[in-house]
Design brief:
This protein has 200 residues and is an alpha+beta fold. The chain has 3 helices and 5 strands.
């Protein structure tokens, strides 16, 4: 299958400390790939570990890790960048499904993976906590807009809709995470959704 291009091998060398690099987290592997074999040669320069991962699962791992680090879907410094990395920790459960045959260095039949105990509920990541903090702040801003007194100097130059749009333009970059459908999270009241290309 490897020769047919359906299972592809990728090696983590001693220079690849973070893990296995991919150039595009949205399309990390060529069409037709059914699984990847991530070869770990980081420690010695020689293959000493294999992670055999079905394509659907490795795609999900890459996307989940990217969204955890960038909950708003955009890199703050280089938003056009699409590279990502597969860490050994993220594919640990797939380690050594194949092993090396000492005579010809060819992967043998997959070994049965050891049953793993159920993991404890995962604590929120720092990025998830940041997203919740941003949501709290955005709701507070929206509440403050609704509470502006009628005689405020704000209304000397803005009506309420204009004031809300001005504030939305100032805080559109807040990393407030995403909705279940993948769209960027935003309040649903007075504060309008930012009118920017990356929000459409």
């Amino acid at each position: 299958m490897i020769l047919a291009g359906k299972v592809r091998a990728y090696t983590r060398s001693p220079k690849s400390r973070p893990g296995w690099q991919v150039s595009d987290y949205r399309n990390p592997y060529p069409p037709g790939t059914v699984a990847v074999v991530l070869v770990d040669a980081y420690g010695t320069g020689k293959p000493d570990g294999y992670y055999v991962v079905p394509i659907a699962e490795i795609r999900k791992i890459i996307m989940d890790d990217y969204n955890a680090v960038h909950p708003d879907g955009v890199r703050p410094v280089s938003p056009e960048a699409t590279h990502a990395v597969v860490t050994p920790e993220s594919v640990e459960q797939y380690r050594d499904a194949w092993r090396l045959d000492g005579s010809d260095a060819t992967p043998t039949e997959p070994t049965r993976a050891k049953a793993r105990p159920k993991a404890a509920p995962k604590a929120p990541s720092r990025s998830e906590s940041k997203a919740e903090l941003c949501r709290i702040v955005l709701r507070a801003i929206e509440s403050a807009l609704d509470s502006i007194p009628d005689d405020s100097v704000v209304f000397d130059n803005y009506d309420l809709d204009e004031a809300a749009a001005a504030i939305a333009a100032m805080v559109h970059h807040f990393p407030a995470g995403r909705n279940p459908d993948g769209s960027r999270w935003w309040t649903t009241g007075t504060l309008p959704r930012p009118d920017r290309s990356e929000w459409r």
